[in-house]
Write a structure and sequence with these properties.
Blueprint (H helix, E strand, L loop, with lengths): L5 E5 L5 E3 H9 L10 E5 L8 E9 L7 E7 L21 H6 L7 H10 L7 H7 L4 H10 L4 H15 L5 H10 L3 H11 L1
Parallel strand pairs: 2-4
Antiparallel strand pairs: 1-3, 4-5
Length: 194
């Protein structure tokens, strides 16, 4: 599968959608559709291929379709030759603005680092997930998928939060760990990001 100019990084391998995952989403209230996180980055230079096909295997689903393809396309933008590059200007955000910054999956490493710096224990991932608003059933699924791997469970829990919560903020994370009694982690978050 040609992928020149594209970087593909599945968060879980193999990338498979199973019948169990699809049926489970219907039993939840409200329904949570199954997902398999894949980070895809395009360099968008002239040599990059214009279309990326990424197959996802289907298992246990009653259908003639064995694979579905995710197709991404890009348009190459050529730089204007007369553009002048100026040095970046540092902009300081107010405390109120920083509290409103929405976190996404691209902030996962920063979130993991701040938890590690505050000596957050990986085995507390389930409680953290609950305080962040993840459902009990979602956390049970993570636990079943990664038995006896608390570090991976924490990673998946945070990834689920960052991809599912459209209002994920540093403040929300600080409040969650504070409620758990992890005041040192909450203090570090507030010092760095709030």
């Amino acid at each position: 599968m040609p992928s020149k100019g594209w970087s593909i990084r599945p968060h879980k391998t193999p990338v498979i959608a199973s019948r169990y995952d699809i049926e489970e989403c219907g039993n939840m209230s409200p329904p949570q559709f199954p997902e398999c996180l894949v980070t895809i980055t395009a360099t968008l230079d002239i040599d990059a291929i214009k279309e990326l096909n990424y197959p996802v295997t289907m298992r246990g689903v009653k259908s003639n379709v064995e694979k579905i393809n995710i197709v991404l396309t890009s348009e190459t933008v050529q730089k204007d030759q007369t553009t002048t590059n100026y040095p970046a200007t540092q902009i300081s955000e107010s405390n109120d603005d920083q509290q409103k910054v929405i976190l996404t999956i691209s902030d996962l490493v920063d979130v993991l680092e701040v938890l590690k710096d505050g000596s957050f224990q990986n085995f507390e991932w389930f409680d953290l997930g609950l305080y962040l608003g993840l459902t009990y059933f979602t956390l049970q699924t993570i636990e079943a998928d990664y038995l006896r791997d608390a570090k991976r469970c924490l990673l998946e829990c945070l990834a689920k939060w960052l991809t599912g919560d459209t209002k994920a903020t540093w403040n929300k994370l600080a409040v969650a760990v504070d409620k758990m009694g992890e005041t040192s982690v909450a203090d570090i978050i507030r010092q760095r990001y709030l």
